[in-house]
Amino acid sequence: MFNEKVRAVLGARALLDENDPRIKQKWTELINLLSENEDLTLGFLKECSKTELAFLSEVFEDVAYNLQSKKYIELLYQLDKRYPDLELKSHIQIAEDYMG
After folding, report:
1. CA pair distance 100, 65, nearest whole angstrom
2. Which of 4, 10, 22, 54 is deepest in the core (most CB within 10 A)?
3. How high is the mean pLDDT in each 10-residue block of the chain (100 residues)?
4. Is 27 within 8 Å of 55 (Cβ atoms)?
5. For residue 12, what pLDDT is reported?
6. How far apart are CA 100 and CA 28, in angstroms?
7. pLDDT at position 99, please?
8. Is 9 within 8 Å of 29 (Cβ atoms)?
9. Can you spell out the DSSP letters for 3-67?
């Protein structure tokens, strides 16, 4: 159920133009969903596709702030190694900074 909800929001986000103001609404939905339960979020990240991860990188920082989880950050670094062409490292470093 959780994965389907996240994928539904990601799908809606993917359909929006980069300049569409509704993107912020989708980001908020993603942040709220991914901040609800660390275990569900980590499980989703472990199995998400490269494209899904690219869209999720837009909200790494806010989710990191809400979760305050070292496991989350560690998993993001693992995903960066899995998909080096996504160049996630700067997003992850900012997310790490958001954890205070």
Report:
1. 8
2. 10
3. 98 96 97 98 98 96 97 98 96 92
4. no
5. 97
6. 21
7. 87
8. yes
9. HHHHHHHHHHHHTS-TT-TTHHHHHHHHHHHHHH-HHHHHHHHHH--HHHHHHHGGGHHHHHHHH
Which amino acid is residue 65, in one-letter code? Answer: Y
Query: Are the C-beta atoms of residues 31 and 66 closer than 8 Å to each other?
Result: yes
> Among all chains, which residue has been given the structure tokens 């992850």?
92
Q: In this structure, are residues 51 and 86 in contact, taking their beta carbons and an 8 Å threshold?
A: no
**Whole-angstrom distance, CA of residue 40 vs CA of residue 38:** 6
pTM as predicted? 0.94
Q: Work out the burial of residue 5: count CB atoms within 10 Å of its CB; fewer than 13 is exposed, 13-18 middle, 19 or more buried.
A: middle
Q: Are 94 and 61 in contact (CB under 8 A)?
A: yes
Measured from the Cβ of residue 62, the count of other Cβ atoms closer than 10 Å reads 18
Nearest to 60 by CA among 15, 11, 93: 93
